[in-house]
């Protein structure tokens, strides 16, 4: 196929119809000349940088786990045609398939200890949404729209790490669109388009191999701003400008979460970047962005499944803390712990109900959108409350944490051990538990996680508005009729 031969490089190829890659192949792929700016310098090799290497190592483990170990059967899928590939790309047809795919989400969350909002299996889910709604793209432009299915199949066979670039920079809203740094088409040729501008919150982009560009609808959206395409990270003119790093390498005991993985959010600057038409999914169509929530159905389900799994870590910590400090019989503490469990079970119920009431689009099963959206709103509304519960029930435990070396000091180590020990844990063990809780709810790493959860799929007020706007008018009318019949008045027609 010309498209595959000329525009998409094979990363792994196929051996005996097995489309899996190793961690080493991923690591080597990052040494591709990409431009990554981080804390004042351009990084020649992110794999060796102390604030990036932990995340690189985690993704390498993710790929290696496909081929051996206890997760191999969960992370891989054998299709009817005999090919074996990552289960992140499986096409669900029913509830059972959605839950099978959900096992992959859970496995990745567990591998990252719940600290990644955009794990390596997220973007395959977003691609699945594009594939399921491919008729939207084909209707806009049959030639460009057909690229969606081709790209999905290429990604399934090659398993690239991808980042999603769809958010516009938060700039001066009083300026007209043409004066802001929105990504736009600045030139066209017979073989492709040239784009310039910026996209932000491109999480995981320093570690990615492909950038998937989307456009969110806005009232001042112009045709040249309406773009969806796939761009290799090392394309000429692409620069990844990273936010401050919050990884604390070498402090695995004091910071058991923030010392391991930082997925890094970034602004991607495009300076006259050429995109061949074979990598463009649509351009110049201001209607398709209105349906972003449709193409993101599968991504929103992934978000709900992931945060539900993360709540298991939160509820586990909440249950453990009182047993460490001896407050487990205090009624107020018990109620706080119970609240974290109620949150977890409610999220699980949303997820189960959405998967059971699945719909079909483009031959692909998707979780019920209304239930998932309601569940996502609930989950992010609860997140700050859950963080506050962890802080409240911890008491001084979160503040009085000491470096591990302090317990070995000859002058005060013995006193320290006795002073802060617990009924079932030594002072050192107690401190390690609270180090975990600190990373989970209180430091800058935790604050970023909380902000990401609350803001990553638009703000809660915006989601509430969209949810209400999209609520079934037939259902709403039926609810109104119940009341109107009781008081014998007509149902409103406005």
UniProtKB/TrEMBL annotation:
Binding positions for FAD per the UniProt entry: 170-173, 203
GO-annotated molecular function: oxidoreductase activity, acting on the CH-CH group of donors
Keyword list (alphabetical) reads: FAD, Flavoprotein, Oxidoreductase
Q: Where's the HpaB/PvcC/4-BUDH C-terminal domain?
A: 295-480
The source's domain of life comes to Bacteria
Pfam families noted in UniProt = HpaB, HpaB_N
Q: Which residues form the HpaB/PvcC/4-BUDH N-terminal domain?
A: 23-281
Instruction: From the Swiss-Prot or TrEMBL record, give the protein name.
Output: 4-hydroxyphenylacetate 3-monooxygenase
| Lineage of producing organism | Bacteria, Bacillati, Bacillota, Bacilli, Bacillales
């Amino acid at each position: 196929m010309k498209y595959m031969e000329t525009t998409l490089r094979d990363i792994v190829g196929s051996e005996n119809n097995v489309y899996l890659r190793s961690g080493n192949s991923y690591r080597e792929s990052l040494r591709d000349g990409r431009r990554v700016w981080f804390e004042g310098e351009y990084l020649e090799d992110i794999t060796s940088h102390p604030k990036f290497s932990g995340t690189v190592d985690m993704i390498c483990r993710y790929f290696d786990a496909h081929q051996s170990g206890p997760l191999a059967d969960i992370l891989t899928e054998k299709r009817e045609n005999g090919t074996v590939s990552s289960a992140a790309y499986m096409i669900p047809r029913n509830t059972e398939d959605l839950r099978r795919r959900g096992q992959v989400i859970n496995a990745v969350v567990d591998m990252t200890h719940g600290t990644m909002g955009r794990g390596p299996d997220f973007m395959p889910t977003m691609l699945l949404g594009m594939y399921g709604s491919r008729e939207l793209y084909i209707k806009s432009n049959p030639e460009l729209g057909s690229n969606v299915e081709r790209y999905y199949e290429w990604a399934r066979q090659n398993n690239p790490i991808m980042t999603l670039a769809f958010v516009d920079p938060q700039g001066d809203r009083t300026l007209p669109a043409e004066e802001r740094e929105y990504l736009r088409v600045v030139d066209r040729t017979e073989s492709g388009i040239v784009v310039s501008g910026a996209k932000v919150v491109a999480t995981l982009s320093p570690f990615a191999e492909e950038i998937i560009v989307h456009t969110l609808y806005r009232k001042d959206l112009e045709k040249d701003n309406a773009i969806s395409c796939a761009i290799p990270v090392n394309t000429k003119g692409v620069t990844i400008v990273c936010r401050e790093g919050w990884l604390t390498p070498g402090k695995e005991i004091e910071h058991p979460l923030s010392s391991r993985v930082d997925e890094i959010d970034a602004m991607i600057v495009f300076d006259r970047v050429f995109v061949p038409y074979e990598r463009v999914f649509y351009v110049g169509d201001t209607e398709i962005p209105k349906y972003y929530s449709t193409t993101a159905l599968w991504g929103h389900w992934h978000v709900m499944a992931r945060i539900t799994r993360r709540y298991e870590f939160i509820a586990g910590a909440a249950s453990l803390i009182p047993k460490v400090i001896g407050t487990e019989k205090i009624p107020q503490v018990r109620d706080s712990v119970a609240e974290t469990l109620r949150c977890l079970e409610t999220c699980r119920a949303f997820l189960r109900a959405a998967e059971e009431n699945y719909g079909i689009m483009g031959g692909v099963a998707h979780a019920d959108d209304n239930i998932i959206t309601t569940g996502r709103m609930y989950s992010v509304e609860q997140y700050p409350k859950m963080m506050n519960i962890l802080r409240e029930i911890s008491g001084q435990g979160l503040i009085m944490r000491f470096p591990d070396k302090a317990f070995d000091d000859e002058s005060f180590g013995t006193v320290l051990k006795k002073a802060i020990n617990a009924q079932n844990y030594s002072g050192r063990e107690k401190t390690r538990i609270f180090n975990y809780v600190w990373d989970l709810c209180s430091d800058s790493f935790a604050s970023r996680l909380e902000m990401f959860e609350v803001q990553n799929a638009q703000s809660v007020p915006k989601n509430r508005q969209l949810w209400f706007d999209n609520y079934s008018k037939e259902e709403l009318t039926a609810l109104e009729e119940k009341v109107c019949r009781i008081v014998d008045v007509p149902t409103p027609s406005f």
